[in-house]
Design brief:
Blueprint lengths: L10 H7 L9 E13 L11 E10 L8 E2 L2 E3 L6 H13 L5 E8 L10 E9 L13 E21 L2 E13 L4 E13 L3 E11 L5 H16 L15 H12 L5 H8 L3 E7 L9 E5 L5
Parallel strand pairs: 1-6
Antiparallel strand pairs: 1-2, 1-4, 2-3, 2-7, 5-6, 7-8, 8-9, 9-10, 11-12
């Protein structure tokens, strides 16, 4: 026996007369925060090269925000999920597949896109820079890796009759060979006896399109948080690496120096020794390590 609703309709009858146009529908985009770690050029071959955290940006080739830099991304097609759209964008922009991919957040603020109502389902990808082939898509003039700096500017705490409001403001600096982009991103956490609400906003912005400074800020905060208690940093590493290389990756992500002994104790269970050593590095050979797959 078919179940009928309050109007006396079966599910089949309801679906047949249902009109999706009764409700306004947003466009949905998948935007990618693609992180990698690269070595800076070092003139002294005996000195270990420094590393830097990079994010991939594309220069927009059309309106809106013509000429501004944006995250790789695009609209979700009717035949794919948001994750499949993100994977497609990743392949199109970098030529790589089967990498670490994690959904960040759905950004749905009104007015975030001047064209129409657009919601962005954002993703974070971590890739080994040695496997990347960057290329601009059809709607972009250029694609480039930007060095990332994300530093705390100020922290405020306000006690209200209902609870506590804590606010952090960060300066986001993105630097390439030719460009320097700046933004101030704010994170506000409002805590009451019954709830906690987190809000992000772009306070100022120079050179980035849409609300992408906010999305990058959220991605950096997620990466910094997870690197402290997971093996996520290993997704930025090549197959074989030294412990010094791994420590440098932690340091560029966290934005601070770490004590060598304490760091090695912390990651000891995440890696395993190999019988290989560095060659032609200009200094004493170092043992190479790989991921301990049993701990990942």
């Amino acid at each position: 026996m078919s179940i009928r609703d309050r109007n006396g309709l079966t599910e089949e009858q309801f679906l047949k007369q249902y009109d999706a146009g009764d409700f306004e529908r947003p466009s949905v985009a998948a935007d990618m925060v693609i992180f990698t770690v690269m070595e800076k050029e070092e003139s002294n071959y005996r000195k270990l090269p420094e590393k830097s955290l990079r994010v991939l940006l594309i220069q927009r080739g059309g309106h809106p925000f013509l000429g501004k830099w944006a995250l790789p991304g695009g609209f979700v097609r009717p035949s794919e999920t948001t994750e499949q759209a993100a994977e497609r964008e990743l392949r199109e922009e970098t030529g790589v597949d089967n990498v670490y991919l994690e959904q960040l957040y759905t950004f749905s603020d009104l007015g975030r896109d001047p064209r129409t109502w657009v919601m962005s389902c954002s993703y974070m990808a971590l890739i080994d820079s040695s496997k990347v082939e960057v290329r601009a898509g059809d709607d972009a003039d250029n694609a480039a890796w930007f060095e990332v700096s994300y530093s705390l500017l100020r922290e405020l705490k306000e006690i209200t009759p209902d609870g506590v409001v804590r606010t952090w403001q960060y300066e986001l600096e993105l630097t390439s060979e030719r460009e320097r982009l700046l933004a101030v991103v704010e994170r506000k956490v409002t805590s009451t006896e019954t709830s906690t609400r987190t809000e992000h906003a772009v306070v100022s912005n120079q050179g980035l399109a849409f609300d992408h400074a906010q999305i990058i800020g959220c991605a950096i905060e997620r990466l910094r948080g997870k690197i402290e208690y997971t093996s996520i940093a290993l997704h930025l590493m090549p197959k074989l690496f030294t412990l010094t290389d791994l420590q440098q990756v932690y340091e560029v992500v966290l934005g601070k120096e770490l004590l060598k002994a304490a760091f090695r104790r912390k990651v000891a269970h995440l890696v395993e020794e190999t019988d290989h050593y560095t060659e032609n590095a200009g200094h004493r050979p170092s043992r190479l390590y790989r991921r301990n797959w049993e701990m990942i």
